[in-house]
Amino acid sequence: MVKVESYGDLLINGMGSSGGGSFKKVIINGKGTVHGDVECESFQLSGSGTVNGSMKGNKGRISGTGTIEGDIEFDTFSIEGSGGIQKDATIKSMTISGKGSIGGSLKGDEVKIRGKAAIKGDCESDVFKGEGGFTVGGLLNADLIDITIIGECSAKEIGGQTIKVKQKPFGIMNLLKSVYPTSLTTEIIEGDEIEIENTNAKMVRGTNIIVGPNCTIDVVEYKGTYTQHPSAKVRESRKL
């Protein structure tokens, strides 16, 4: 648990501003601005707000439109509206179910994406679950990576122990896939157990690999077993 010292609550309703400091609760319901760094037990932004500094706390939530201009460190944090963290985020349990952006890297135990996320740096966690669209500018690394593709997904590199990438069934929406393309694009995927669909990659390297439908891969390298769907395009496969 992130340790913080608290000295009362900070509440902004309507338009207002305040200096930073240590608080038990920080609640912004209107259009508020906090100038300076903040430590708090809980943070809730349901209006339109900005924190011109870094934040540290136990539980945070952005359900409106919010920007935090520094780093953040929380036990749990969720973005349900439109939120931006301009620097690094260290969060044990992170959920993005709206539209979220992180200007630096994201580190935590569990990351869940159910909306649209943009992470400029690396994303490192024990568990990464993505159902939606996301971009990771650096390395996406987790022990378990479970991706259900709904929108466009991309990461420079992907690494983990178990990596699963599948296309969400669209039913009648399959007729519109040419208008709304969905796929995962990356330079390299490296792991122990790999099972992928709708993936474009230069290299896939692992122990046991299943290349499913609608994949385009330059090179597959495997130590154990390898299977390939008839619709997949693999230029070269080799056993190590």
- Overall radius of gyration: 20 Å
Determine the fraction of residues in helical runs and give it as a percent range. Answer: under 10%
Order of helices and strands: EEEEEEEEEEEEEEEEEE
**Average pLDDT reading:** 92
The total count of helices amounts to 0
How many DSSP E strands? Answer: 18
Short key terms for the protein model shown above:
single chain; 240 residues; mainly beta; 2 domains; 11-stranded parallel beta barrel
How would you describe what is shown here?
It is built from no helices and 18 strands. The chain has 240 residues and is mostly beta strands. The chain has 2 domains: 1-104; 107-240, no CATH class. Strands 3-4-6-8-10-12-13-11-9-7-5 form an 11-stranded parallel β-barrel. The radius of gyration is 20 Å and the shape is elongated.
In short:
This protein is an all-beta fold and about 240 residues long. It has no helices and 18 strands.
Write the layout of secondary structure elements.
Layout: E1 10-12, E2 15-28, E3 31-45, E4 48-52, E5 55-62, E6 65-68, E7 72-79, E8 82-85, E9 89-96, E10 99-102, E11 106-113, E12 116-119, E13 123-167, E14 184-196, E15 199-211, E16 216-222, E17 226-228, E18 233-239
